[in-house]
Amino acid sequence: MQHAKPLPSYLVQRYHGWKATTYKDNQAWYHRLADEGQRPRAMVISCCDSRVHVTSIFGADQGEFFIHRNIANLVPPYKPDGLQHGTSAAVEYAVTALKVAHILVLGHSNCGGVQGCLDMCSGHAPELEETSSFVGRWMDILRPGYDRVKELPSESQRDALEKQAVIVSLENLMTFPFVAEEVEKGRLSLHGLWNDIGEGGVEHFLPETGGFQPI
Amino acid sequence: MQHAKPLPSYLVQRYHGWKATTYKDNQAWYHRLADEGQRPRAMVISCCDSRVHVTSIFGADQGEFFIHRNIANLVPPYKPDGLQHGTSAAVEYAVTALKVAHILVLGHSNCGGVQGCLDMCSGHAPELEETSSFVGRWMDILRPGYDRVKELPSESQRDALEKQAVIVSLENLMTFPFVAEEVEKGRLSLHGLWNDIGEGGVEHFLPETGGFQPI
Amino acid sequence: MQHAKPLPSYLVQRYHGWKATTYKDNQAWYHRLADEGQRPRAMVISCCDSRVHVTSIFGADQGEFFIHRNIANLVPPYKPDGLQHGTSAAVEYAVTALKVAHILVLGHSNCGGVQGCLDMCSGHAPELEETSSFVGRWMDILRPGYDRVKELPSESQRDALEKQAVIVSLENLMTFPFVAEEVEKGRLSLHGLWNDIGEGGVEHFLPETGGFQPI
Amino acid sequence: MQHAKPLPSYLVQRYHGWKATTYKDNQAWYHRLADEGQRPRAMVISCCDSRVHVTSIFGADQGEFFIHRNIANLVPPYKPDGLQHGTSAAVEYAVTALKVAHILVLGHSNCGGVQGCLDMCSGHAPELEETSSFVGRWMDILRPGYDRVKELPSESQRDALEKQAVIVSLENLMTFPFVAEEVEKGRLSLHGLWNDIGEGGVEHFLPETGGFQPI
């Protein structure tokens, strides 16, 4: 790997600042986390988007959340075909090895991935239909969600599809036998959330109404 | 989705604390981020491990880092076969749509995924060899790294394999044509890092020596 | 311009050091910044004083802060009279073209400009009262601040007037229609700061109390 | 000033990191700087542009450079009319009070202010011609430079005008009696520089040729 570069100096400087303050003040906790392993209470599945700061919004500290982040916070359906499924591996590890008590699926407003899905499904982004488009193929997971929002007025489709990304992922989570079993035994609970970036709002999915409501 | 539950109250409470403080003091920035879109400087690929807090270590705020997190911070080789590749989709979006200037691959000590890979490759975890094991199939990506560390004394194999997870991922990144092209044009740089959880240390990969060195 | 000289060699030497290290490690970012333009999150208005290092104190890298520096970090009142107003031009560009989310006004201890204002207003520096004194006329902006501190014991007047330089500038910023509008829409926030050079302290202005408090 | 907000928490965190490292390691120097006042060797006049990091490029530490930053690094001609001239005040203070030995005027590539001047002077930005445009009136300083580049091919006009911003400013500096006097006595030297943001290059103005040359 002759192409790697040293870390940019502004990050080196910030790291040393963290080491001298946050790390120093919590050294004992970091040692315990290293020696005894992690024991997170929750898994969070969120988008890679730089505007979503799940640890900040929920005041989480090191050791609290096992966090998987991918484009548009999607979970694919259970498919044990021997191929590589990074999201399914993360869910499997969280539920069977770490035995987390909660899985939070956190969607958000202004999602570029969801917008891409909308463009693709409505025929406006043929490049995303190509076999070689990783983003397009990934967003295929959300096609069942598109079918549920396509009749809505166009100005409300993206928000609705962002929320479908949460609902479809929750549905797909229940297709994993080890998830369904823990949920049914009452040892694991699933939560759907949607974050409005600009307004700082968070809504959660309520299965009784099938809708989202501010927390 | 009749199985979703409302958000646990301790998280609701923390959220309201964040809204009244961090959000309130940064409202203008969140509005800008929502209206004008994200333009992160770097993509970070890190592990889902709850003990790795990349935004904290590098003092990053909302909008700075596009973050993908998966088990053992792995990037698979380029394989445009029309199947779902969440990590490849995230890399594609970061490089081609967001045009990030840096990709940081951040490994860490005490990594459960890497330990699993070590156990599997050395014949001590037959369950991970099964077709149905998502974690096992995902850790297959790191097999080329195992071949490079298997002759080491057993007590130093895990650290070495954690660092191979970084190196193998950097190597695989360069198999993506759009990554290699941007790197060669000097418009994207790759960085390999390894975080010692307990000691709070960070080392970066130096291609000249092939080794890692404290920053 | 027959008077210009080549750059002193100690600076040439340092530049080559920067080029071989910081530039080389961040080349991709510099290319992006050049090609895609700046999008700084904040504008900083600070003093020219050589002891104030705003990028160092706040760990900022290239591209983060749009920085205007003048004597005593002053913003004059809005006055669109067709004459040259360098500070007003900088504020206009930051808010209307770059759409920054924050303006930080950063004052500091031991400020020579503020001391000059104090001497002038208390009758001890007649040369600063002259029409031809650029420093004197510039410090006129701070006269409303002097009126608020002149009854204080003399030993505490300079600190108080340095903080007034921040407050008066924040007040004057709100006289610019485009600043007031963005602030009221929640798309721009103003922050007042004062840096103690010797002790390395930073205090911020809290409007609830009208005073400054360590951050 | 009821509109000021507390400092965003990411900057508070970074500040504490700086305090615990850079400040702590240099505490004695900061105390001396506070107690004995600044004695900078050079004044730098640069653009507010967030991509220009003069302290980084020239490895400058606290106390070395007295820095004035405005749109397009311009110095207006000497005009002691009793009105407010922030740039002239900074030059006066640097030369007569601080007795700096060098003034560096640092221009740069991709300058938005210079682009605005070009648009305005070539008739493509009528809004910048308005009395109420602070940016337009400020860029009037560069009109004499436009006259020297307007016959060039359009693709090379911006670079040429950026360099004229340096030359015009050097010329205007010499109209200040206290600058001319110090230059003629050999106690002050002026330097013209231009920074290529993307390539990391720096060129200096050579009066013998009237052109710029890489340092």
TrEMBL record, chains A, B, C, D:
UniProt-listed InterPro entries: Beta_CA_cladeB, Carbonic_anhydrase, Carbonic_anhydrase_CS, Carbonic_anhydrase_sf
PANTHER family membership: CARBONIC ANHYDRASE (PTHR11002:SF76)
Entry protein name: Carbonic anhydrase
Cofactor(s) needed by this chain: Zn(2+)
Cofactor note: Binds 1 zinc ion per subunit.
Binding-site residues for Zn(2+), renumbered to this chain: C47, D49, H108, C111
Single biological process term from Gene Ontology: carbon utilization
Entry's family note: Belongs to the beta-class carbonic anhydrase family.
GO terms assigned for molecular function: carbonate dehydratase activity; zinc ion binding
Catalytic reactions of this protein: hydrogencarbonate + H(+) = CO2 + H2O
